[in-house]
Structure formats: structure tokens, C-alpha cells
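check these C-alpha cells.
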Amino acid sequence: MKLDARQERLLRNTFLDYQQTSAFIANPLIIHRASGLYYWDVEGKRYFDGIGGIFVATLGHGHPRVLEAMRRQMEKLSFAPPMHGPADITLDFIERLGRSTPGNLNFIKPFSGGSESVEAALKFARQYFKQTGRPGKYKFVSRYHGYHGATFGAMAASGTGKRKTPFEPHLPGFLKVFPPTYYRDRFPSWEECNRFCAQMFEDTILNEDPDTVAGVMLEPIGNTGGIITPTEEYFALIRAICDRHDVLLIFDEIITGFGRTGNMFAAQTFGVIPDIICGGKGLSSGAMPLGAMMAREDMGGAFLGAEEDGVNFAHGHTFAGNPLACAVGIAVLDEIEEKGLDQQARQLGDYLTARLEGLKKYGVVREVRGRGLLRGVELVKDPKTLEPFPELGKALKRTALDNGLILRVDPNWFAVAPALIATPSDLDELCDLIEKSLVQALAQVRT
């Protein structure tokens, strides 16, 4: 699309997330409306949303059940001051979400999004140990290549160097280990590599002193590292390590939660229940900013007591538990469970993977990974040498947009995460667009 002078001027008067403004202006996209699986730009061109609004549009765009829930709540109450008292719909949402969480993760606080949920979990863990007689436990172990949010605590837990370095120094007490993909070529099997990488968490905890470590935080499937998908054993080993050393296991399910991986939560997909789950993105299908921290119910007891004891959780946000957002969240959870969209994502994910595996015939795909309707494709110059192919990814981002397709491309891999309402024919359309764009991108880089 082409920009007019006003649009270009306004773009230069703001900033775009994680991209250079001049590069965006050279290949722009300004969205005007959306419906179902599609966007339309200001010129009327249609785009297939192959990434579900960046893992947000769980039910697609403009889902009628979601919009109706918002309209009904808007007529009653659109804001309640959290410091004075929650809305009744907020309590309904807490109850509803608690029915979907694994284990006894029923101590729930709604927030405005994923970063807030992560920030709350970090503070909650530190205060929890202070109030249960272990005040020295304050450190967190997370992974390189992981991303947990844009606020300072969440950023300190993240392992994405270039996103972090402009804001250094970061908060102290955050340690990193490498994900399995970092070492995969040094082991005879993926399973053995995962065992080694799980053990790194215990080695780090032991060498830091377990009495100083509060939590392990990780994404069950790592987005920014290229849809990193460990084995089930990996999570079982980490769960056992945390149990041995009285360390909280925190799952960042901002992307993997709410049906995306074939279950309501990836914790269920991988068969391990953490102590805390952080959620966001798809919880509202993009209709309202919404996230939630879900902790073990017994942990909430550490924040109860006499008023003079001052043991309340010293944390809050103005829009936490917003009534409109909570009404939307209830509608999304109801729709996923009533329609079995999480189970459908498992079946459709297998179909999507089979189609993506077909791209290997072009000799530039190393691996297709992920679970459910969250899949990643790694690009290489040669499947034998496994040399990365960033030029191809950069070209693919351009050709996809030209062909009316929106993907998450990070030049050595791309991610696909369509809305859970997609059908096999929708996935065929998506994969045909991907293949067409990949062929064109290959022609460009080889020329």
C-alpha cells in the first residue's frame, strides 16, 4: 500500500513496536478493519491473519459472542476502582477462569495484559517467600531466547539481548540458562539434549544457593527463540527440580494459553502443573486488554491476616479486573470449552503441520515444530549444513505482505498461529499463501 503525506507524518510522530520507522514506511501496513480470519487495510486490500493478531485473536476478529458480552456489560458498568472494590463481573471472571485452570491454580488476579501478569507473578513470588519465613529467596532463573514482556521486571526475566540492551542495566536477581535448541546439534538425540538443558536449571540453583532462588520462569513453547518445543520429560524434570529446592515453577502462557496448544493450557499439553501461570493475549480474543495471574490457592493464604499485620499483596493497576474485559474473558472461555476449540486445535494442528512439512521439498526447511495451532518453521540455506537463511526470512516477510498474508517472521524462522475457529479449508488457503510467498522469496534471494 501507499502512504499519503499525513499518514507518513503521523508515523514519524510515533514509534512502531520493535521496528525502524523508515523501514516500515518503505513497506507499510495500516489496518482499517477486521473480521474472522482477515484484516483489510485502508486501501481495501484483504490479508489472511496467519498469526491470529500476534497470538491474540483466539476466536478470530469480531466474534459475535464476544461483542455481545461487551455490549451487555457496557450498559451496566464499564469501570470499577480496584482500590475500593471489584465489580461483580470481575468476581464472576475469577470463578470462571478458576474452573479452567489446571490443579488448584485458583488464586487469580486479572490484569490488563501479559506483561502486567508476569510483573505481578515476580512480585507475588518474592513477597510470598518474605511472608512465609524465607525472605532470602528472591532470584529467578529463566532462559535465553525467552521473552516475558516489556516492563522492567518482565524484561529482566527475558533473554532477548537486542530488545534488552538499550535499557541496561537491568534489575538484579535474574539468571539465565539456554533452551534446548541452543545445544541440539551437540547431542545424539533431542531427548538427551532436553535432559541436559533441564539439569542446567538445577545446576544454576545449586550454585546460586537454593535459599536465594524464588522461581523458575519459562514459556512452555518459546516464541522468540523460534517456537521452541521441548519434550514432556523436560518439564517433568524441571518440576522435580523446583520441588526439591522449594522453588516456584512459573509458566508464561501468554501465548500458549487458552486452547492454543490443544488444551486450555500448555501445562496440560505437557502434563506438568506449575505453581503460577501468567496469561494474556488470547484470553480476550483481542477485544479488550486482558491478562491474569493464576497461582496455587494455598499460596493466597500468605496474603491473608489481620489488618495490622500488613500482609496484603502490595501491588495493583488501575485497569486490573476491568469489568468490560472480564465480561469478554468469560465469553472467550465459554466459547472455547463449549465448542471444544482446544481439542479442535489439536486435530487441526496435525493437519497444519502436514501441510507445512510439504515445504521441505524446496530444500530450505530444517524443521516444523510446535503443538496445536502454534507452529514454527525454521529456514536454512541447506538442510545438510543447517546454515541459517536470514535473507530468505526478510524476503518472505515482504512477499507475504504483497500476497495478502500476515505472518510472524524472524528472519531464520516464521510462526503460524491462526484463530482456533479456522477450518481445514482455511488452513489450505493459509498454506497456499505461505507456499506462494516462499517460492517468490526464494526467487528474489537466489537472483
Remarks:
- The chain has two domains: 5-62+341-446, 64-339.
